[in-house]
Amino acid sequence: MRKLSALTVVAALALAACGGNSNADKVQTSTAQEVATETGTVLQLDPASSSIKWKAYHKGGFDPRFGTLESEGNLTLENDAISSGKFTIDMTSLRTDDNAVDIAKTGGKTAADLDGHLKNEDFFDVEKYPTSKLEITSVRSFDPAKDKSVLADATHVISGNLTIKEKTVNIAFPAKVSIQENEVNVQSKFSINRQDWGLTYGTDGDPKDWMISQEVDLEFDITAKK
């Protein structure tokens, strides 16, 4: 009976590990593509009205951790459409929301402690790699017949080279693009697999890394202005 009980527990943990709690679009990935040429009117990202949010999970979607990142960059418009864009993400700005960490469960470790853990050599090594970047490679219209999105009003599919710690992967994700006379707003919510960029905790197969979901959600709300 003890052996059966142990196997049951292991099976339950395995099933939990397969699941997640992400409510984001899964990106399509490929090798790095040619970056779109900057043509048209350049609009600069407005930090005051822009945000990047992140969320990560333990296996099974338990105890999510979430916070923010800061960035700078630009979008270009040509014929009332986005033609290119480049964003630099400041990895030193990574912050964990205090509400994401229950110190009663963590043995007293705080959100600031998690920031240090994420910024050191365990994950992003921000002293060596202080920035990441996203460079648009193409933009096409969202096709409801074949494209799916958690965004009820997605308008486009954006493809771009995402570089983290010098590893570049092309990602494609749905977005809602709103263009006005003097500004552009881009909203998206997508999930990446951290291991595509070699983001592991410890050595390959380390139990500490196994306890962390491979999914990381990124939510962009970017406004660029003339």
UniProtKB/TrEMBL annotation:
Gene3D superfamilies (UniProt xref): Lipid/polyisoprenoid-binding, YceI-like
Pfam families: YceI
Record has Transmembrane helix as a keyword: no
InterPro entries: Lipid/polyisoprenoid-bd_YceI (IPR007372), TTHA0802/YceI-like_sf (IPR036761)
Signal peptide span: 1-24
Domain of life according to the entry: Bacteria
Keyword Signal: yes
Sequence ranges assigned to domain Lipid/polyisoprenoid-binding YceI-like in this UniProt record: 42-225
Keyword terms of this UniProt record: Signal
Protein name: Lipid/polyisoprenoid-binding YceI-like domain-containing protein
The species this protein was found in: Sphingobacterium gobiense
